[in-house]
Amino acid sequence: MESVRQAAADAVRLARVREHFRQIxxxxxxxxxxxxxxxxxxxxxxxxLNMRHLCRVLSDDAALASRILAVARSAHYGQRxxxxxxxxxxxxxxxxxLRNVIVSIVTHSLFKCSGLVAEALWSHSLAVALASRILSxxxxxxxxxxxxxxxxxxxxxxxxLLRGDREGYSKLAREAHQNKWQIAEKERELYGFDxxxxxxxxxxxxxxxxxxxxxxxxxHGDQKDIDPKxxxxxxxxxxxxxxxxxxxxxxxxxxxxAEIMHxxxxxNEEVLEHAVEEVLQAFNTESAxxxxx
Length: 293
Description:
- By secondary structure, the protein is an all-alpha fold.
- It has a domain at about 110-290: Hypothetical protein af1432, CATH 1.10.3210.
- The chain is about 70% helix and about 0% strand.
- It contains 16 helices and no strands.
- The protein has helices at about 1-25, 35-45, 50-60, 60-70, 85-95, 95-110, 115-140, 145-155, 155-165, 165-180, 185-190, 195-205, 210-220, 230-245, 260-265, 270-290.
- α1 packs across α12 (about 195-205) and α7 runs antiparallel to α8.
- The chain is globular.
- The N and C termini lie far apart (about 50 Å).
């Protein structure tokens, strides 16, 4: 009987999330993934990718193409001869960096709301993305690109809430900080669902892979239900590292459970502090690059 009631409650919450998401789309407060970006991300999954064809598709979006060229010409890549064509830019960056920059461009466009709350959310998302990449290298079993994208997009549901209710959500964020509340709990009280559920709905509409969607959806759930070696566990730990580095979003992330901390050897304080320093260094190095995109 209890399982039936729980299933009914879950169905009600899901219906609320979908309705809120539908209303935002209809009010044109949240654009769908651009057609060119959708095509390019699909092409990047093709083992028989034709680079010239890829660049022709990229060139259909002049703004996207110019930003990719600008990133490839940045000091980050240290090229003596700067690329002057899109093909040369893609060759300098490589396909993994290209995917990350494209998604960061789209994500950053969602975060272009005025105000300190939106700015703090973007900085936190970038820090978690970089921490996720670092942690994936620690495990040696996971694609750093997938981890980076998961971190970058993990709180996109908060941006949807901020776009749909800027004043109300900004107030909620500030009060969560002042009172040391868990922000997801207050979201559920105010909206009937939390940003993790809403973010997973957006990623589903963008056809992101199921593992990324699942990690985003459960990153504020019960950690005892999370496999310590899963992408979700990596995301929870990256969120914690970013907050420990002073790059959180208004409310501190909970400390991962012992099993997850042990997976990354963070039960050793020295190892943990070294990882925090790595996140800070990576953020300082790459934030300017991704913001310019």
